[in-house]
Amino acid sequence: MKIIITAIATATILLTSCTNKEKKITTNFETNPLETKNEVTSQESLLAQLDTSLEAPVASVFYVNATSGLSLRSGTNLRSKKILTLPYGAQVKHLSSPAHTTMTVSGITGNMIEVVYQGAVGFVFDGYLTRLAPPQDGESVEGYAKRISTKDHAVQVTKTKNPKGEGYGMTTRIELPTSNWTEAYRITKELFDLPKSLQLDLISKKESEVISNSNKREKTFKDEIAVNRDTASEITSIVYTYQLRDYTRSVTIVKDKNGFIVDEVETSK
Q1: Which residues pair with 8 in a beta bridge?
Q2: Which long-range contacts link 115-119 to residues 24+ away (Cβ below 8 Å)?
Q3: Which helix (H) or strand (E) covers residue 237, if one does?
Q4: Regions of the chain where pLDDT drops below 70
Q5: Which of 1, 18, 50, 268 has its CA 20 to 30 A from that of 138?
Q6: Nearest Cα to Cα of residue 264 among 178, 182, 180, 174
Q7: N- to C-terminal Cα distance for the chain?
Q8: Of 95, 130, 165, which one is at a domain's C-terminal end?
Q9: How do beta strands 235-243 and 222-229 pair?
């Protein structure tokens, strides 16, 4: 009988203990709901932050490559109110690309895109934008190459004397790490001081063509640019030629696996 009473007492203590634990857990949840809710919310917030950081796109950066500056407008057409003029070389961040804004300006085909510049938001014609920073006024080819080089890719410049000697000419080569003909030409035009009047539309599909400088000087034999295309109307090279009686200068752009190669060849008699 004593053994039975002891067993009953032990069972009662264990049952009471379990009940108290259940009550304790229930009481904590009911009396501190914000603590549990905050913990869950905090975890969800952290996951949301992690997801955002993984999925958020990196804004593209462009540079203004119009020597006279580029208008930042309130709308997507050239009649929209001008907010300000972006200076040559200004860095802008690409925000969006509205549909149906393709146009041709001074022989250059492009689109109106939304950008931000020093807090000002508006729309610009992307035909005058480049992904590479444009050359600065008076900047040497070597100086420009050094400025646009990165840790992962050093832009190379080579100079080769004419076989007869430096007095007979020099060949200068630079590699431009860009992906499209329009950008390669616009940078080459500034870096090697090609005539401003030579505006090329390199997006449209045309046959090979030769364009003469409308401001060609007297006694100049040649002052022209040739855009060479294959049978599929794809550009194979762009060649600028300037020729006097005793002097010839050519600037050639060709596509390379790492971008574009630009060769300037000067020859004197």
Answers
A1: none
A2: 115/62, 115/72, 116/92, 117/72, 117/84, 117/86, 117/90, 117/91, 117/92, 117/93
A3: strand 235-243
A4: 1-59
A5: 268
A6: 174
A7: 130
A8: 130
A9: antiparallel
